[in-house]
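Let's do one together. I've listed all components of the complex below, 640 residues spread over two lines.
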Amino acid sequence: MLTFTIRRLLLAIPTLLFISLIIFLLVDFAPGSPMSQIPLTVPPEVRLKIIEAMGANEPVYVRYLLWLKQFFVVEPLVLWDHWWGTNFSEGMQRIVSWQSRSPVMDIIVQRMPQTLTVIGTSYLLGVLIALPIGIYSAYRQYSWFDQIGTFIAMIGFSVPTFFTGLVLILVFAVNLHWFPSIYDTSLRVTDWESFLKQVRQMAMPVMVLALYNAAQISRYMRSSMLENLGQDYVRTARAKGMSERVVVLKHVLRNSMIPVVTVIALGIPSIFGGAIITEQVFRVNGLGALLIGAIQGSDLPTVQTLTFIFAVLIVLFNLIADILYGILDPRIRYD
Amino acid sequence: MTDLALEKPRSQWADVWSQFKTHKGALVGLVVFASLIFFVSIGPLIWTKDPTFINPDAATMIKTRNKPPSLEFPLGTDQLGRDMLARMMKGGQVSIAVGLVAMTISILLGTLVGVMAGYFKRLDGPLMRLTDLFLALPLLPLLLVMVLLFRDPLAAAFGPEGGTFLLIVSAIGVTSWMQAARVVRGEVLALKEREFVLAARSIGTPSRRMILRHILPNVVSPIMVAATLGIANAIITESALSFLGLGFPPDFPTWGRLLFDGAEYIQNYPQRVFWPGVAISLTVLSVNYIGDGLRDALDPRIRGR
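Okay, and this is what the predicted structure of the assembly comes out as:
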């Protein structure tokens, strides 16, 4: 197991390097680069100064290597300094946003909590809703509960999140006035009153994402349960007189959780992508909104860094899912 | 001759259809999808209002703005007095066209990569690494970047509509072939071990004919299922891009764009969000159900039971 983990970690390095190269080149070689967006009225020598100040006059490979160094050496050192009060990173150049002229990582750290609270809560809620639904619809296959569950799941992943979001805004914000339609990032939770306010403003984005996640996970849970319910060990367990509760919730559930847990792990990075849209609908000032803003402002360093962080998340959670599979399922041995 | 010999031989596709018919959801999905296609293709011939017509007379234009549904405008009008029904039809044409073309690109790519990787052992490793790599890319951010960066040059080359269509279709196609490739590769690997392939090889069939005559016809079913699901995926991605304001230009309606434009007016004119949203959802839902039924119908283990 350990050798497998180490091998996979080593393999992840070239993958990530290659992905970073693709992202860097795609953003860089595109014909409509931001350098061409400087107005023509700007005199040529000033234009050169602007480009030089952005560091965009160097050849591509120099900028790519510099970016790699900044991402993998400078930024971790800054983090280290921040935690332990050392100053290894003094005088080193960090990845700087062209829009705000402040380090990209600082902006990301500022935006992270909003995204994490909304996405984290919705994913957790989605899983908590999905598991019982999946278990019960498999146990009573083709019952009316199962039929309705299947239909709702189908709707859950067919109706795009931006439409569910807008419908929720229409119902709960415009007509019923229960929840605010815009997420207030500056809200600080200090007492019960502000906590309720936070819950209210989180309710709608969390509902949208939770429905979407629950739809997918409940399907996986159902099919995995169905597969296990037909196995011989279930009949044995029933034959030796175990109660139905123990058979389903202990014997079958444990075995059917194995693939579901990996699916849950695999889904985490993709919800960051999906949250880009939800954040836009509810004006949550998170990572998705940062990415959209940076793309519209042609802020290349921010776009490159943020996209690469999303890629790192995908690779990381793929690895976690594989390892979890190996730990949970004794039939799987990687060595 | 006995009566048995006279019984008409049943073709494979008749079997598939008779199994497909038993899946109620798929049947309803097929009807809904067909009527949507009918609505967007035949509809404009019956309802001949110009979807981009803005009344040149400013006073009349202001009077016909944001109208509720009436006989003249069955779905009302938008903030510039354009007829929503005509816009829904035009938008549907673009959305469904994007779905179909993007799906075709992604299926062609996926089948090519899958067959190559499955059939030629030497290509298997590199091509599958490439697939894994594409699966590890954050797709939505990359799509956004691609659209933003290539939109203007392509619009200059092929006109604003054609350029954006080309860009969105190829961007979605290039980023969604991986699932099809994996499925096809798996099927090809299994087929290669079968006796008829061995027989074909022993009489000296060249690789090209081997793939076209023996391998491809046998991987049609998983490809068809992947294709239906690909349409749904492409339509959702296109409307998401349009919804983020990075899709088609404003005067060129698609369902996602109509939704995006309507979102600003949601408080006063909720029907402007409602109709495009329902259209997208219905299309995707019906296509997903068709895919579900197709998967059951094309699986010989389920079929005929």
